[in-house]
Queue: 2 jobs
Job 1
Amino acid sequence: MGLLTLGTPLTWSETIPYIDYIKEHGIDQFINLYCRYKNREDAQLKWGDEIEYSIVKFDHANKKVRVSLHSDEILTQLDKQISENKKNHKENLSLWAPEFGGYMIEGTPGAPYGSSLECIDVVEKNMIARRNEVRKVLSNDEALLSITFPSIGAPDFTSPPVKIKAGQASESIFFSDDAVNYHNKRYITLMSNVLQRRGERLYSNVPIFKDKNTLSPFKEHFSDEESNKNSIPDHIYVDHMGFGVGMCCLQVTFQTVNVNEARWLYDQLTPITPIMLALSASTPIFRSYLADVDSRWDVIADLCDDRTPDEKGEAPLKDNHVIINKRRYDSTDCYIHPSSAEFNDIPLELDKKSYEKLIKNGIDEHLARHIAHIFIRDPLQVYRERLEQDVTTSMEHFETIQSSNWCNMRFKPPPIESPEIGWRVEFRATEIQLTDFENAAYCCFLVLLSRVLVSYNLSFLIPISQVTENIKRAQKRDAVHNQKFYFRNKLTKCLSSDENVQQVKNGNCHGYEIDEMSINEIINGDGKEFVGLVPLIRQFLDGANIDVESLFKINRYLDLIQDRASGKIFTLAHWMRDFVRSHPEYQYDSHVGDTIVYDMIKTMNEITQGKKHDESLLGKAPPVVKPKEVENAAKKEQRPKLLCYEDALNGQKF
Ligand code: ADP
Ligand code: MG
Ligand code: MG
Ligand code: MG
Ligand code: MG
């Protein structure tokens, strides 16, 4: 989760006197950086993924599985390996970072991927190699899984067991602060400062999946008053940041050629985030109960919510507070490219001082609004030794606010300490997938879609309020089949802001309408005017100079996305729910007992390692790639006849 810094963390009350100072200097840092890099050009796309993993430990004799609180030791060993490699001038295939849970680690490729389509061939291999590196340092009964552990916060969910201590920072009744990564005090400080700022315990209520024998109403009774008060019937009550941030996700960062393209791509990918959230749904179980949602989004957002009751509108405003409509972890509130302005229909809370300073220093209105909007949040991770900073050589005060605005997209300026890295955007909404094949597929889909957008100069913008609504729908159970999403029903070229205004004036809304479409229609086409995102990518590939072997691999990835969208195969969330509901020990009461979790995680581990194949989740077995076969297969391959691109655009040429 963002900024890695060491020092003496300040508590919330210690931070308060420095808030204005940090914001002011954070804005100065941004202005300096922007002026330095606003004309920066990078030759090509670079990109990379981030995968968060859970380490689990099996107790085969008792048919139990727990999360293994060993990420510290594992990271130390991985770092040793990285230093060795550096010493011996050997290439590092992966980089590792701590994550919130003491049972989590985050892995990225050793170096970002480049722009050639052949790079796609490396992605899955790198993910496999990454996993193997960790496997080498795990004990025999441990496993590395790219999943969200279904029993987070259930009794005794860790190995070794850790107790909930009186007076622990979180005040949770389920999750011991000792299950948080202690290697880095920043996580505890962050959580504790969120809690102190908001002035009450963190909690969220996740709708429970009502099965045949689920109690109605479903209501748990807790030993303390506050939990009973905070929990609501027919919901699973959770009360620690670990229930959200202790879950795993998949992120992709793209470096763009310049700041203009970064702003544009940030906007264009924003309406895609809910689509990916629904397509990647993999979180149907919370605290060992089946939920009526398939994704972690709202839960994590609640558990990072640092707003005070008056900021939420639940009490009269005080202390020059203003009403803040969204949580710190939530969907993006505004587009940032000038051509997108007319789609910004959510009133934005701005930090006025920051806004004025940005404008005074030549930052345009659209970017200034975005930065001043993220600066309505207070800093939560401040280090005593690092208060004084040279605004020309450090970005830390900016980063402390930027990296704790956890949105579906993030606009990342070039890091001051790494001159080789340019302007970037991060796609943050995808849920983690079980296998490297799937994670590679989701990443490749996104990277190809981004190339299509840039190359064809298309626009998928819809009013930003509709993106917010789509994110809500995307989390519902089986959203991929049951929900409809606001989306443009026709491919349209991206217009400048003047052209946009002109079109609206003429009553010609760009020749498209915003429809409510299913994921299947969005991904595979609606059989009418909308060609579908994957057929569009396939068309792009038809025109690209790409070797047959890479194309074959890409097609497997695109097939997976298409089959998930059409319902031919399941999302992981659906698969997990089915697994539970067909387990002989399941009582149809929503509770996912130890043995079920054990059997499920064991099966998941076998699938991850390629020892088992489940067609309902992955489709046909990923083929062994042999050059001759590939060629034949590519020749024989039956693809639906596509509209030629110009046709799809209704004769528009560009
Ligand atoms: P954060 O946690 O702040 O999102 P990470 O360092 O964990 O950042 O991940 C950054 C990701 O960005 C990695 O996947 C990396 O490969 C990718 N990336 C994209 N472009 C670049 C670039 N130019 N240089 C380095 N990394 C890049
Ligand atoms: Mg992370
Ligand atoms: Mg991070
Ligand atoms: Mg990261
Ligand atoms: Mg990230």
Job 2
Amino acid sequence: SGASLRKPAWIRAKAPLGAGVARIRRLLRDAELATVCEEAQCPNLGECFAHGTATFMILGDICTRRCPFCDVAHGRPLPPDAEEPARLAEAIATMGLRYVVITSVDRDDLRDGGAGHFADCLRAIRERAPATRIEVLVPDFRTREAVALEHFRGDSVPDVFNHNLETVPRLYAQARPGASYQGSLDLLRAFKQRHPQVPTKSGLMLGLGETREEVLAEMRDLRAHDCDMLTIGQYLQPSAEHLPVREYWTPDAFGALEAAGKAMGFSAVAAGAMVRSSYHADRQAHGLVGT
Ligand code: SF4
Ligand code: SF4
């Protein structure tokens, strides 16, 4: 029909932000760093910054793919900024962040998919802010998986390796053109085989028309590929040009998925309308959410 669904009451509006957040925003601007927290106007921003958590977007803000649920600009990206790792590490140290998530757009234009730049950032942060725990939320490195994984070694091994499957395989052609469901599962398993001590993690967004059975099957696929941790949230349409929300999953439905995930053996599961890939990432990594 084209008519959009009304947002239910449990979809929270943005929370008011404190003075501490304004200071951090200025610092980020001065360092020319982008956070997903700000770009996506994440409703959890005040809470996360206050807890010493933030999600940084490296490698620019222009993606080589065009996923119709995603608000990131599409086009030809700039070459990696060689100064970015040092600026990032400095800002993380200055902000006193305890837990950071490093993510990027898809860089199909780079031979290593951008993994080398991820590794440079990891090394720089390890050196400048050695107590900070680092989660990487990586693109799928499609067709370059083996080359990409070679970069994560020694000082550049993250504390958590996260790669989102986003949606169920039936909806990949529509929602993740250019991506491969099996390829993404294989990436998670391949990392785990190289670094069995490092937790792997994935995330799903619901509301694009998937069924509960499809979600459960996907969760089983993740466990079969040794994925340890899982986040499940509600898809929200960024603009009228993006894929419509087909369904708002209820708090009870999220709760049931969380319980099912624990029963399947995930070490941490966070499921809820406002859960994002990096929400409570610090507590999850310590096993405090979902225990
Ligand atoms: Fe940033 Fe993630 Fe927290 Fe949102 S949930 S504010 S994106 S760290
Ligand atoms: Fe957005 Fe990632 Fe798709 Fe790029 S690959 S359009 S950043 S979801």
